[in-house]
From TrEMBL:
Top-level taxonomy: Bacteria, Pseudomonadati, Pseudomonadota, Alphaproteobacteria, Rhodobacterales
UniProt organism field: Sinisalibacter aestuarii
Official protein name in the record: IclR family transcriptional regulator
Ranges for domain HTH iclR-type: 30-91
Keywords on record: DNA-binding, Transcription, Transcription regulation
UniProt xrefs under PROSITE patterns: HTH_ICLR, ICLR_ED
Region (Disordered): 1-26
PANTHER family: HELIX-TURN-HELIX TRANSCRIPTIONAL REGULATOR, ICLR FAMILY, HTH-TYPE TRANSCRIPTIONAL REPRESSOR ALLR
Length: 282
């Protein structure tokens, strides 16, 4: 008797690509599908286009573009306005995009970005949200340096004395900012804390102009922080990314250099959650 006759077949490991398939784009790409996606992306950026205009701007024949558009139309990804004779993005595109947003976890997507930011700057990288008038720190990647900032997940910090807090305040509309300034106690934590509403408004205007906020020993003596906002699909600032560390390493002459990777990290996370990214300034 051969015992192998009764052996259970081994379960196959789930694979994301066929066995033996390599990563050469030229070999694995379906050219017609790739061309269709180019048309779809083009139309998403240039809503309301005539067939001839799309063909001319994409340097393709009208017949080819028409076949692609009618195929996409059959899936609801684009639609045709008979009255204006223009092509638009269709409702199915929104449904698919909404599904992506539902599976998006900002904290999860931020983790590799925070790690890279820590490695690029050598300082602790943080992620925080606004919660009931304070900054709630939800994720952190600590630097390997002996002296470092530490904000464990769940830590709350006042908005007016926090880099992330000021980055978010700077993006609030006028009415919401007015309500915050009318109700929030601008307590002093150090002799550098901004406690005057007019002075805070001026600081927030500077934040808007340069694209990043600075906590210059405003919460803890000897510690500085540089922060930039993260935007959602509607262009609203929903979170902030920062680096923080001792003034001995984050000197005033280092602010401009360190601000760029912070803004780039915030922009990368914005794009990762499908948000409307602001250009990196500076």
């Amino acid at each position: 008797m051969d015992l192998r006759d009764n052996a259970k077949p081994k379960a196959r490991k789930a694979r994301g690509r066929p066995r033996g398939w390599d990563a050469k784009p030229a070999q694995n790409t379906i050219k017609s599908l790739d061309r269709a996606m180019e048309v779809f992306e083009f139309l998403s950026e240039a809503q309301g286009k005539a067939l001839t205009a799309i063909a001319e701007e994409m340097a393709q024949s009208p017949a080819t573009i028409y076949r692609i558009l009618t195929t996409l139309e059959g899936r609801g990804l684009v639609e045709f306005d008979q009255d204006e004779q223009l092509w638009h993005i269709g409702p199915r595109a929104f449904v698919i995009g909404a599904r992506f947003l539902r599976r998006t976890s900002l904290v999860e997507r931020a983790r590799p970005i925070l790690r890279k930011l820590m490695e690029d700057t050598g300082e602790t990288a943080n992620l925080g949200f606004e919660k009931e008038g304070s900054v709630l720190f939800v994720s952190q990647v600590e630097t390997h340096a002996n002296i470092r900032a530490f904000f464990p997940p769940g830590t709350l910090s006042p908005m007016h004395s926090s880099g992330i807090g000021k980055a978010l305040l700077a993006e609030m509309d006028g009415d919401r900012l007015n309500r915050f300034l009318d109700s929030a106690p601008l307590d002093a934590f150090t002799d550098r804390t901004i406690t005057n509403p007019a002075d805070l408004r001026a600081d927030l205007e500077a934040v808007r102009r340069r694209g990043y906020a600075i906590d210059n020993e405003e919460k803890n003596p000897g510690m500085r922080c540089i922060a930039a906002p993260v935007f959602d699909v509607g262009g609203e600032a929903v979170a902030g990314i920062s680096v923080s560390g001792p003034t001995s390493r984050i000197g005033l002459d280092e602010l401009a250099r360190l601000s760029r990777p912070v803004m780039e990290a915030a922009r990368e996370l914005t794009l990762a959650i499908g948000g409307a990214a602001m250009p990196v300034r500076g």
